[in-house]
Amino acid sequence: MDRRKFLKTSGALCGLGLVGSALLVESCKKSSTATAAQGPTVNFTLNLTQPANASLNTVGGSVASNGVIVVNDGGTYIAVAQACTHQGCSLAYNSSGNDFVCPCHGGTFDTGGNVISGPPPAPIKKYTVTKSGSVLTIAG
Q1: Which of 103, 113, 120, 137 meets the CB 3.0–4.6 Å disulfide criterion with 126?
Q2: pLDDT string in tens for the chain (140-residue length)
Q3: What is the domain-level CATH number for residue 88?
Q4: Residue 35 resides in a domain
């Protein structure tokens, strides 16, 4: 093989190697597109006068119902999906951190359902909560 042919072939093989490496690295990157929030579709009510829902009358109190956690956040109510998007473990509300924590692998979500830390790959669904008298309606 003459020198010119050798250099041409070597250059082409190096170029293919670089393109292949770039494709491999690109396939390992996390997707830059936002993943949709995950959770069940619900439409239910909670009566604040019922003993089962009494904790919602206290700031920081929470109740889990229908796959949703409802929290009294200082006079307003927040509702998010109860299942962690990592492996489906039941989340718990952490009133001191004002966030939702997964006991299985330490994932945390803010009150908007967004992932703060840990392994969850997607946010949890946030629901609309309306209050009429002593009844909360959770939908979404």
Answers
A1: 113
A2: 666 665 556 555 555 454 444 443 333 334 434 578 899 999 999 999 999 999 999 999 999 999 999 999 998 999 999 999 999 999 999 988 899 999 999 999 999 999 999 999 999 999 999 999 999 999 99
A3: 2.102.10.10
A4: no
